[in-house]
Amino acid sequence: MQPNQYRDVRLEKLEKLKALGLEAWPRKAHRTHGIAELAATYADAETWTNEQLEGLGLTVSVMGRVLTIREMGKSVFAHLTENGEKLQAFFRMNDLAEPGWDMLKLLDMGDFIQVTGPLMRTKTGELSVRVKEVRFLSKALLPLPEKWHGLQDKEQRYRQRYLDLISNPDVLKTFQTRSRIVSAVRRHMEEQGYLEVETPMMQPIPGGATARPFTTHHNALDMDLYLRIAPELYLKRLIVGGFEKVFEINRNFRNEGLSVRHNPEFTMMEMYEAGSDLRDMMALTENLLSRVAREVMGSEQLPWGEQVISYAAPFRRLTMKDAIAEYGAIDRPLLEDSDQIRTLAQAVHIEDAAIKSAGMLLGDLFEHYAEKQLIQPTFITDYPLELSPLTKTLEGDEAFVDRFELFIGGMELANAYSELNDPVDQMARFQAQMDEREAGNDEAMLLDQDFITSLEHGFPPTGGEGIGIDRMVMLLTNSQSIRDVILFPLMRPTKPSEAGEAPETTD
Fold this sequence. Notes:
Blueprint: H1 3-19, H2 35-42, H3 50-56, E1 59-72, E2 75-82, E3 85-92, H4 100-104, E4 112-121, E5 127-130, E6 133-138, H5 154-159, H6 161-167, H7 169-191, E7 195-196, E8 202-203, E9 215-218, E10 223-227, H8 232-241, E11 245-253, E12 265-274, H9 278-297, E13 301-304, E14 307-310, E15 316-319, H10 320-328, H11 338-347, H12 358-369, E16 378-384, E17 393-394, E18 397-408, E19 411-418, H13 423-438, H14 449-456, E20 462-468, H15 469-477, H16 496-499
Parallel strand pairs: 3-5, 7-11, 15-16
Antiparallel strand pairs: 1-2, 1-4, 2-3, 4-5, 4-6, 8-10, 9-10, 11-12, 12-20, 13-14, 16-18, 17-18, 18-19, 19-20
Helix pairs in contact: 6-7, 7-9, 10-12, 11-12, 13-14
């Protein structure tokens, strides 16, 4: 049958329900237990035999979505699911009061029902409810995806995440794990004395990163605003205002392309600590990741594709030049000469190598040779000044800055600085960024004069960092695409011919 035919059949069953005087969508369920609670307490067949369960005299009422229905003469077995856990409902004709059995004939996979009865264990050892009463909570008018294979088409899985969660238990588990990861991160930060804050999502000047923003318009004030690309400049204002340690876990928005590692709307944690520097951020980061891996995933050794990543602290440290030399098999002294750097870049066909600065080309060479090779956690340090307009320079070398990026699984996870707190220097850096914009770089930073003013009131030495929460979840759950860890990733519009298509179904 076609999906509309399935719907017609279910609408007929709905009318029969109404003829029996029953509600298909009542206002409330009346539960005594959750399915997950019962599964956790009574799942052990050796501890809780059928005789012991009967001895309890425990009558339960649970609700769940019907995943399977199996008829055996005057008995029916159905699996109900709630929050990723399953429980069997065992129906017998003689156990159900009217109109129970007639009502059962109107049951479909996907329906939500409430069942009431004593707990039991079947001959096969499965924990079950011996149903005495059954009640509809929601009649599903459309069928679920084909039960044996789930929802297989990735595009459809992302577009109809609700079906993905129903039919693919591992997907639901991933997002439950994501929630626990975020909770563990927040708990660790609070235990380190950090205060969680919230800063504006709509900003008059997009700042804190080099990226193209999304633009919106405020009608009452008749002014353009930008969805934030980073909370950095507002969090730094809080340090100026007297906070010692602050962090924020929230969304950033960057008007860029889609890939397995990029979604235009993504979750970041940024944190700033007065009086600290890059080394303090390193220690905080490796201790955070080690702890989250242990507490949430149960181990510091976790799979990533066919490899195993160790999250045990301390992590490896490499300068950018050392990483290029090691992974590109390049003589290290060549990277101290601007002409040699340009020659190396041209040899691997880096775009605009003839006109870019040596610092920019070092970044390109690192990306070309080293980035994807950094599977084990590695802090890359000593970035060229051109790549880091908000960072203190290295002591004794004004061409490089005190910055690290943490790479794991061949991708950047975190970015940290010893923050620039000299307002005169910061103003000069902003001006350089403005010059780049005038030259055609749409991602260069805009001048934020109020931020400069805040620095002129005094900004103490500060360590700051941003960590990609989506990528952290990817790594810890061994998910190879960012779309697999974002509940509702941005998708291209469907073509008209696809709009009415439905998943493979079973009924």
